[in-house]
Design a protein that fits this description.
Structural class of chain A: mainly beta
Largest sheet of chain A: 7 strands, mixed
Number of strands of chain B: 11
Shape of chain A: globular
Radius of gyration of chain B: 13 Å
Structural class of chain B: mainly beta
Oligomer: heterodimer
Distance between the termini of chain B: 41 Å
Largest sheet of chain B: 6 strands, mixed
Largest interface: A-B, 25 and 23 residues
Order of helices and strands of chain A: EEEEEEEEEEE
Strand content of chain A: over 45%
Order of helices and strands of chain B: EEEEEEEEEEE
Number of strands of chain A: 11
């Protein structure tokens, strides 16, 4: 089945530094990937939709200069949290879209990346 | 604007009892509806999708376009069903997957 690998699973960084999170689809090509943020005991908040070869579409209220998304290939999307601050500490989850046998859209999720900014 | 609502944050039932997790949506067009489940310390995984009209782990969900609902049902809950359940919506172009706030199902022994 479809597998999405997300790396790193946990990262701690100092305030002001930048952190890059990778999301890879291992055995399928994903023209569309999604980035979510999840706060403790809350639902997933869609941050942006990433389409291969084009600029990401950000949801309202998400700073595109703070959360840089690059989808350079059909199997890799990256999220870079620039000049991270403690309020950016969160659980970031990526997912990749593929088409199932019936043609329906299927999302496969990565395991998530926990970012802690000191 | 597309939106998914799940009115119950927490739902507790006894083992063997029927369970229904509610989901309502708003979308201009024909959406695709999904249920995702997150067991403790595991990643989100697809449970079922309306287009497949399938039953997974005893769960079913019917899309009611008139009521814009996609409630998840199981006639006899099991303890291993305890998890976080998310209803999700996507346009048919696969863009903008949006999730509801989630319902935590707790099945008591």
């Amino acid at each position: 089945g479809a597998v999405v690998s997300q790396h790193p699973s946990w990262v701690i960084c100092k305030s002001g530094t930048s952190v890059k999170i990778e999301c890879r689809s291992l055995d399928f090509q994903a023209t569309t990937m999604f980035w979510y943020r999840q706060f403790p005991k809350q639902s997933l908040m869609l941050m942006a939709t990433s389409n291969e070869g084009s600029k990401a579409t950000y949801e309202q209220g998400v700073e595109k200069d703070k959360f840089l998304i690059n989808h350079a290939s059909l199997t890799l999307s990256t999220l870079t949290v620039t000049s991270a601050h403690p309020e950016d500490s969160s659980f970031y989850i990526c997912s990749a879209r593929s088409r199932g046998l019936t043609g329906a859209n299927v999302l496969t999720f990565g395991a998530g990346s926990r970012l802690t900014v000191l | 604007a597309q939106r998914v609502t799940q009115p119950e944050k927490l739902l507790s039932v006894f083992k063997g009892a029927p369970v229904e997790l509610k989901c309502n949506y708003s979308y201009s067009g024909s959406p695709e509806l999904f249920w995702y489940v997150q067991y403790s310390r595991q990643r989100l995984q697809l449970l079922l999708r309306h287009i497949s009209r399938e039953s997974i782990k005893g769960f079913t969900a019917d899309l009611n376009k008139g009521e814009t609902s996609f409630h998840l049902k199981k006639p006899f809950a099991q303890e291993e069903d305890s998890a976080m359940y998310y209803c999700a919506l996507s346009g048919q172009d696969g863009q903008n997957f949006v999730f509801g706030p989630g319902t935590r199902l707790s099945v008591l022994p």
